[in-house]
Amino acid sequence: MSLYTSAEVFASSTLIENTDDLISSAHLLWNHADELSRCAHAYAQSAFFASQQMSSSYACPEHIYGISPAAAPLSEAARHCEQTALLLESYAAYLRDLADKLMRALHLYSHAEAQTSRWMQSLLATSSYVFPVQTGLGLAAVSAAEELSSGKASLAGFFGRHPREQQIYLDQLGNRLSNGGGVPGAAERLAKGAEELADVWQGNSLTVTPMPAVPLPAASTLSQSLTNLETLSSLKHGTISIQRYTRANGTHSWVVTIPGTDGQKDSPFGWPQNVDLMARSERARATADSQRAVLSAMQQAGIQPGEPVALVGHSQGGIIAASIASATQHPYTISHVVTAGSPIARHPIDTSKTWVTSVETDRELVSSLDGKDNPIREHWLTVRGRIRDSQPSASLQPTRVPNAKDTHELSHAMNYHTATFRDAKRLPSPELEAHETHFSELTEGRLDRNLAYECRMNKEPDSEHTHRTPENTGP
Fold first, then answer.
1. Helix 182-202 crosses helix 163-178 at what angle (to 10 degrees)?
2. What are the distances in angstroms from CA 33 to CA 24, 28, 79?
3. Domain map (residue ranges) of the chain
4. Which band of pLDDT confidence, cut at 50, 70 and 90, is reported for residue 80?
């Protein structure tokens, strides 16, 4: 089954207030593209008819292929008609793509949707708070009915429907559980129980051990950092990658790549740790075993205060990145955070010091678990992908998602996020280019250390094992 993603970029820039002329221009481009397609079809038909003729008649007029009919054989006429048809169709595709970029870059789809659905969202929020059980059952019934009628039904597809409504419902449910504290307040109340559960199941002894380097290439761009994250996610569970870059002047910068939740019994990247990481207070977040593991690996790698660090994480890995970036009780300089499918909207990241690039999709559920959209402010950019079962229309040019399943699934795997970011790169977004430049400048230099750490939990009495980084750590 072919799935497609169409990206929208949300950043701190103000929307253009008078967009009527730009909308008209986009529609004019689409109309011209349709005219060119009709001409291309006519020339293609001419080529077909010419190839069928048994006489010396000609299907294309003289001005099309530039030679005299008397001197041109029938095959030459057909060939020129075919070439003209292909050329016209390529021009039509270019105009459609240009119109698509113009509309999507202006956020018109999401802006119009927000205007028409605002009152429905307010009604849903009230209903979710006053009647949480009934509202939850109603949302489940609607999602189930839509999924069953899709022809590609699956349980994952059921959970991936109506992300906006899920987000509102979770926010109000969190308010009820925490007396107005939202999802972070509810997570704070549940954190202690989650820690006790994790201690019984996994133990509280954390081991962070150097292991043979993961062969990740230099992350010189945001796109490459996401590709590296996808590679890391497919390797042995509980593995952290740390790369050091050395500039010509001898200074260093670092990229720490963090995996998502794996659910393995001996891994600190388990399900209970997510609750700790989404809690309201820094103290509660700091107790998460997975965050302890990342900070231990950073310390062992030799990252020094003042050296710029980029944290790149998928799912729970992105929450860890946001938690460390918003924390005050560590010596590191977090210059850039890159997340894929991570609910981090409520983490108090100081974007005057740390740039944030978030990639989300609308069918993944996970990025909505904090009950809030990412903030739109300076140096915080969110790329959000709309996942569709097929190409929506001839006027849109989305990007195909590789390795998608035949039935509906949560669009939380890295293949969805990397495809969404590729699609966003096609948009003329100065904000996205600024984030690319910031990340590229951070990783400028030679990759001279490619480190990896295996993180494990056990029930031994030792609180935490530390290990010295091997001397031979080149890529």
1. 80
2. 14, 9, 23
3. 25-103, 202-465
4. confident
